[in-house]
Amino acid sequence: MLTSQRKRELMDVLRRDGRIVATQMSVELGVSEDTIRRDLRELAKEGLLQRVHGGALPTSPALADFAARQQITPDDKAAIGRAAAAMVQPGQVVFVDGGTTCTQLIRALPRQLRATVVTHSPSIAMELMAHPEIEVIMLGGRLFRHSIVNVGAATLEAIAQIRADTYFMGVTSVHPEAGLATGDFEEAGVKRAMCQAAADTIVLASSEKLATASPYRIVGMSEISGIVLPATTSPELMQPYLDMGIALTLA
């Protein structure tokens, strides 16, 4: 079988099964595991999948830059934002991540809500200018332009001084086995720190992020309290999280 034919077969399996197991594919295609791993490396370089131990998972379209992500599933993100905003109670201190879905959360908050929002996102802070009763605490650091968020040692040091009620986390990938992930090492570290500094972590996951993987793991699924998902999410995709005891909110 030609290399191009193997790669087409691998991508067909990934679309059908949601994962590739290298040992299984080496048997099915009659080639060595090294050959399958080489094919997976080349497909990963093309951005077509995310390699993981033993095989590969679908990559996330949410790895695109901020401007491109604004065009992905905007209706899902607006609905998720409204559902998440309803969880914020007066007087709470909440971490709010950067990103397009968290922007929708801020836009859905009641104008007269009294609360404190801590964020490392300049764009989220600017959105909060329309909420005069919300105290805004900006976390400093180096600006990561791809996601328009601050990262680095200064950001982590500031997070360590805060204990929040809830962290609303944005991610690029959600997978029951691979966990929560994003596309930048330092950004993953900031998200992990906010998760550890909050009593509860709620993940905002639009449809394109589900059952995908990204290069940098944030935390495993056991570290979060709940996920806000689109109402159109299939029962098959939701069941693994329900089995883990994670609260799911359909938006």
Automatic annotation (TrEMBL):
Ranges in a coiled coil: none
Signal peptide (UniProt feature, chain positions): none
Matches recorded under InterPro entries: AsnC-type_HTH_dom, Carb_Metab_HTH_regulators, DeoR-like_C, DeoR_HTH, NagB/RpiA_transferase-like, Tscrpt_reg_HTH_DeoR_CS, WH-like_DNA-bd_sf, WH_DNA-bd_sf
Single GO MF annotation: DNA binding
Keywords for the protein's UniProt record, in alphabetical order: DNA-binding, Repressor, Transcription, Transcription regulation
Domain HTH deoR-type, chain residue ranges per copy: 3-58
Protein name, as recorded: DeoR/GlpR family DNA-binding transcription regulator
